[in-house]
Amino acid sequence: MTQHSIAVQWVCDSLLTKLHEHFVPSVFENITNFLLVAENPCKAIPLDFVFVIDSSRSIRSNDYEKVKTFIINLLQFLDIGHDATRVGLLQYGSVVQPEFSLNTYGSRAEVEQAVKNMEHLATGTMTGLAIQYTMETAFTEDHGARPLNMHIPRIAMIVTDGRPQDTVKEVAAEARKAGIQIFAIGVGRVDMKILKTIGSEPHSEHVHLVANFSQIESLISVFQSKLCGGIDYCDLGIHGCEHSCISLPDCVCKCRKGYTLRPDGKTCVDVCQTLEHGCEHQCVANGSSYMCKCFEGFILAEDKRSCKKCHDGVMDLVFVIDGSKSLGPANFELVKQFVNSIVDSLDISRTGTHVGLIQYSTKVRTEFTLGQYVTGDSIKQAVGRMQYMGRGSRTGSALRHMFESSFSSREGGRPNTQQVTIVFTDGRSQDDVSEWASKAKSSGITIYALGIGKAIEQELREIASEPNEMYLYYAESFEKMGEITQKLKSRMYMNKKLESLENQHLQT
């Protein structure tokens, strides 16, 4: 028994004695059961479990230590022993370095110490080679894997922070075919497509991406429910669910109608504050539920979600989208959803509204021009194909490109058509924005400025058209993005309606 276990046992024994002196037997018995469960929370089935850890030079020393801490914390949910769960670990860079095999250690304490003793390789990223070693060596009986006829699940957990320098698709498929269940964890700017070629199906359970190494600890609760069995955390009352806890075989959090579960798997958010409600125009909370409403001049369609469009207010609309590294791949996908949500509210056709889009980072890239697509579906498909740039943030350069090129006739701009730009950014620009924003507005381009998170209010004011309260939108986090999307749609519709009325007045 380790010193830690002895200390825990002494505290528990002392506490139980005091409880027995002051509480009736039934209460004492319930508390005793709780403490025994808390001391050893996992009663999972035996596993053969191999960690496959990226130890490349792109991982900083302090981040490498965070990976070791993550592994040690995850070990707390494994019943480790030669007749229980066996744990092996290898790390890889340009070569594969096995740290210990499945039959090397028979206790959690020994495994923890071996993890603490690991040293950073700081070389290349040969992920495919590591998967091949895992399949051909780590899960052999000579290295401690139990025979296949014992039906012990074989689990490999791969943690990586970058693009492999070798191929992974074929060898990962071969490993999965051999009966190895693969969890793929990506940290930072990892290509989700590559993670999905590595991880087992369903990807929603086996493939996970976090923004940085500080967030990797958030996955502990995810894997706890997968690796632990035999305890109903809902009954214990320590599940942390904001609304309700449901025992399936694993306990999961559930939200009341009208709410949806946040990514942390525990807290809930009003559906109307997300992009998941399905309402084309407005989502309105209705007690414990919600309903969809349309802007003035629209009516709710038969599906009770979409709105029948009016066909006035033709415009040329150019999105200017921040693709800087501060955004992150996951949030970039939310921005793409935002763009498509706006597109869904527009009357797009050859004679109706035209849409173009540029993405910017250190450089500016035209994703598609105003004259390139003339249907909403083709535009949304183009948005879906966009690749995240993930570098610096030169908003001023993007505004210059929009002003000088995006509305030109060679890129599909039409004469005597309202010109509108929606600028989306999540932080301070590395260049000046005022000059080109001012030139664009002076030329008649209407600019809506949307900022999320660390976006600087003064920069947003310099970008947006006047009055700012009509053209500037800001939210503290991406969870509020659905809310400002609805406000923007409403404002764009009202502005189009006012312009239509003004044009009618001028013609009479």
Automatic annotation (TrEMBL):
Keywords: EGF-like domain, Glycoprotein, Repeat, Secreted, Signal. InterPro entries: cEGF, ECM_Assembly_Org, EGF, VWF_A, vWFA_dom_sf. It comes from Oryzias latipes. GO terms for cellular component: extracellular region. PANTHER family: COLLAGEN ALPHA, MATRILIN-2. Pfam families: cEGF, VWA. The lineage of its organism: Eukaryota, Metazoa, Chordata, Craniata, Vertebrata. The keyword Mitochondrion does not apply. PROSITE patterns: VWFA (PS50234). The keyword Glycoprotein applies. Residues 48-227, 316-488 form the VWFA domain. This is Matrilin 2. It is found in: Secreted.
